[in-house]
UniProtKB/TrEMBL annotation:
Phospholipase D N-terminal domain: residues covered: 43-139
Xref: Pfam families: PhoD (PF09423), PhoD_N (PF16655)
The protein's name: Phosphodiesterase/alkaline phosphatase D
Residue span(s) of domain PhoD-like phosphatase metallophosphatase: 152-503
CDD domains documented for this protein: MPP_PhoD
């Protein structure tokens, strides 16, 4: 029996409720969009953060036409939610009623408890006699359950103005994903036209100005949630998300951001609070007792997924030898203490870490100026500064050293932020590779739409970037694969023997009907901490 057949049998079993991979086929994007426009549920439904007995379900109700996101208009609205074992909602597993209103932008978010582990559920909402589109979600297996496969979509950097979210549509159409990991930059904060597709706005976002106030952030989140491809993928499976910087402002740190000027935009704290409030209202994410977003999810004995918050507690970005200052932090002390205890405790066979910015060291010093320019802009390298990206872990070297020393075997970093595709072995430093062993592996997924290297160069894809990729790899031998041009998504497949990331590119982000094609795959055998190229994507 071939591996592919084993996988298909397994998926069938999963669909029948005995496995973990499949949650069933989503409705088409077009059908969802049409249904949403005709109902008060025009922002779709979503679910997230599955536990063995719980999952978050989400929607937004528009009780009267003028109650647009961020408007503050519209009164209280009573909404019923239902979680069922069957698509006809005859076998209700949990249900309830709550009142939402303008104080929470008419969003509805329920942490549904008391569910069965490793089970597929249908969920929907009812308002004024109208049912929302139904979503599919799934609870996690119990920690001690033996699980033989886990498949996740992996995405980041979805910029409305830079194009259509075809990556989401193609992921939704697969029907084989347990869930989706979004590594941040789910929205972008810029004013209209400031960061588009090679300078051209594919579709204008709302509001037209840079978002600063609570109403602004709500309006922007609300518009993103009208995208049919985004709605299709949210309705298809639970998401596990973390923010990066653009959910607030570019290159944010604990006390400000590169794209925040207190002189013209006011103090940082209220802007941060506004962005956070809108995020928690609009995203299916579970927060800890102190409002923290870092957390661990677990999928039986096979894998756990630790999602990190690398923006809320970090020291300000710097350059030069200051990056080595042992007092600088990316995570903050409390999150690092928590992370170390998570990593040293009895974890699953694979330790996945959702890590918004690249942890592998990266040397760009050998690149010629015409290539270094676009890479600098993409990677945030300061002009005239050292040739490294001080916004990612390269700007926090002492803390990275401490974290790498604490990594358990079989750690896999899942990373976004830099809009490009990378397969890295993670050395202690770039200079010591390969003399000292790789400590982990890292898969970096490309942007869903945001500009990358050929876009900054205004060049044809796969022309000038090829030179840059060759030079990056020559200067960074731990970078086993790099592709700087494509937009798309990743699919991570985990089994007890290996993890494999498949990268897929979309054909044209300016077109709503863009095709998807396989780009590359890398796998890591359990216990190896190394990568090898895989020559075909996992079948589905
Ligand atoms: Fe981004």
């Amino acid at each position: 029996m071939t591996k592919a057949i084993i996988r298909r049998d397994f998926l069938k079993a999963a669909a029948a409720g005995t496995g973990i991979a499949a949650v069933g086929l989503p409705a088409t994007a077009t059908a969802i969009a049409a249904a949403a426009e005709a109902t008060p549920f025009r922002h779709g439904v979503a679910s997230g953060d599955p536990l063995p007995d719980a999952v978050i379900i989400w929607t937004r109700v528009t009780p009267v036409p003028e109650a647009a996101p961020g408007s503050g208009a519209g009164g209280p609205a009573e909404v019923t939610w239902q979680v069922a074992a069957d698509p006809g909602f005859q076998q209700i597993a949990a249900s309830g009623t709550l009142t939402t209103g303008p104080e929470r932008d008419h969003t509805v978010k329920v942490d549904v408890r008391g569910l069965e582990a490793a089970t597929t559920y249908h969920y929907r909402f009812l308002f004024d006699g109208v049912a929302s589109p139904a979503g599919l979600t799934r609870t996690a297996p119990r920690p001690e359950a033996e699980v033989d496969g886990l498949r996740l979509g992996v995405v980041s950097c979805s910029n409305w103005e830079a194009g259509h979210f075809s990556a989401y549509r193609h992921l939704a159409a697969r029907g084989d994903l347990f869930g989706v990991v979004h590594l941040g930059d789910y929205i972008y904060e810029y004013r209209r036209g400031e960061f588009a597709a090679r300078g051209t706005v594919v579709r204008p976002h709302e509001p037209a100005h840079e978002i600063l106030s609570l109403a602004d952030y709500r309006t922007r989140h609300g518009q993103y949630k009208t995208d049919p491809d985004l709605q299709a993928l949210h309705a298809a499976c639970p998401w596990m998300i973390v923010w990066d910087d653009h959910e607030v402002a570019n290159d944010s740190w604990s006390g400000g951001a590169e794209n925040h000027d207190p002189a013209t935009e006011g103090p940082w704290a209220p802007r941060l609070a506004a962005s956070r409030q809108a995020y928690f209202e609009w995203m299916p994410v579970r927060t800890g007792p102190a409002g923290e977003i870092y957390r661990t999810l677990r999928f039986g004995t096979l894998a756990d997924l630790t999602m990190l918050d690398l923006r809320s507690y970090r020291s300000r970005q710097t350059s030069g030898i200051e990056v080595d200052d042992p007092g600088r932090t990316m995570t903050g002390q409390a999150q690092m203490d928590w992370l170390r205890s998570v990593l040293s405790g009895g974890g699953a066979r694979w330790r996945l870490i959702g890590n918004s910015v690249m942890i592998s060291p990266l040397a760009l010093g050998s690149l010629p100026a015409h290539l270094l320019g676009p890479l600098r802009r993409l990677l945030g390298v300061p002009e005239g500064g050292y040739a490294l990206n001080s916004d990612q872990w390269d700007g926090y070297t002492a803390e990275r050293k401490r974290l790498l020393a604490a990594l358990p075997d079989n750690t896999v970093f899942l990373t976004g932020d830099i809009h490009t595709s990378w397969a890295n072995e993670v050395p202690r430093t770039a200079a010591t590779y390969p003399a000292s062993p790789s400590l982990a592996v890292e898969f970096v997924v490309p942007s869903v739409t945001s500009d990358n290297v050929d876009d900054f160069l205004r060049a044809e894809p796969r022309t000038i970037s090829l030179t840059a990729e060759g030079l990056v790899r020559a200067a960074n031998r731990h970078v086993r694969g790099v592709e700087l041009d494509s937009h798309g998504y990743g699919v991570l497949d985990v089994n007890p023997d290996r993890v494999q990331m498949d990268w897929f590119a979309i054909s044209n982000r300016s077109r709503a009907d863009a095709a998807s094609s396989w780009l590359a795959s890398f796998a890591s055998a359990h216990g190896s901490r190394r990568l090898r190229r895989a020559y075909r994507p996992v079948p589905f």
